[in-house]
Amino acid sequence: MVKSEWKPEEEIRLALEGKDRIAVISCAVCANLSGTGGYQGLKKMRRLAKKWGKKVVVSQCVVACCSQEIMGQTKKVHLDPVAAKCDALVMLSCSGGVKSAFITDPGMPIVAALDSMGSAVVTRKESIIAESLCTGCGQCVLTYTGGVCPIAKCPAKRQYSPCPKQPREGDQCALDPARKCVWKEIEKRGDLQALQALEARHKNSGEPRLAAEIPQEFPGLGKALAGWAMAKSGRFARIISSIL
User: Fold this and answer.
1) Residues whose CB is less than 8 angstroms from the CB of residue 13 and which lie 6 or more positions away in sequence, other chains included
2) I need a labelling partner for 162 at 20 to 30 A (CA). Which of 87, 102, 186, 206 fits?
3) Is residue 210 part of a domain?
4) Where is the Methylene-tetrahydrofolate reductase C-terminal-like domain (predicted)?
């Protein structure tokens, strides 16, 4: 999932300055699993709005905000009927959902209340693997690092090998003594020899990527009906949140 976190309260409040009537759309999947969206996110946003003296005209949970078709149907079903009464749309979603809202153009300013932090595992288990959020570098090395993202966890942002200052003994990070050297953990879990071979391949190879298999596009009516169903299926969020 795309992990998200709430922006600072004051940042959201400033973005809503002068906007007294708001609509709130919340993602039932990634933001829901992050604890920032879903119905819990809606409740939190309603509490904040009340604290700031603002009126929530409509608040709705939809299956996925990142789909332009779902957001388009969300606009028709939930936003268009109240657009004249709203000063802003608050999005509780990853950046993909916010972009989808802008493409849909709801006819009101759009405010992102969350920050996208990276790709994450859905788990409550404490693990260095879960802690190392994917930053989307475009050249994934997790196969050879035992699932630990070195770019996310190494202060030197080393992707294929430890920095020259890596300690021979002990596990203290050479750049940040307050943390452990992530490469010591990668050495235990991964395959550094294969990782260095991959570095040479990435630097010297112009190999084309395999092409994505894009599904055949639904006919217009079928696509619209699917988007409408997803826009109306907010209760799906309760099922999703149960797997946390």
Assistant:
1) 48, 52
2) 206
3) no
4) 125-197
Bridge partners of 90, per DSSP, are 24, 111
Can you tell me the distance from the alpha carbon of 93 to that of 30, in angstroms, rounded to the nearest whole number? 7
Tell me what pLDDT residue 215 has. Answer: 64
91: part of which helix (H) or strand (E)?
strand 88-92
Q: Residue 46 half-sphere exposure, CB side, CA atoms within 13 Å?
A: 15
CATH number, domain of 37, equals 3.40.50.11860
Task: Flag whether 215 is in a domain.
Answer: no
Q: How far apart are the two ends of the chain, measured CA to CA in Å? A: 12
The predicted model scores a pTM of 0.81
Q: Are 182 and 128 in contact (CB under 8 A)?
A: yes
Per-residue confidence band for 109, with pLDDT thresholds at 50, 70 and 90: very high
Q: Which domain holds residue 47?
A: 2-119+223-241
Indicate whether 197 pLDDT > 90: yes
Whether residue 140 is found in the same domain as residue 108: no
Q: How many domains does the chain have?
A: 2
Cβ atoms of 26 and 199 closer than 8 Å: no
Average pLDDT over residues 93-111: 95
47 domain residue, yes or no: yes
pLDDT the model gives residue 204: 81
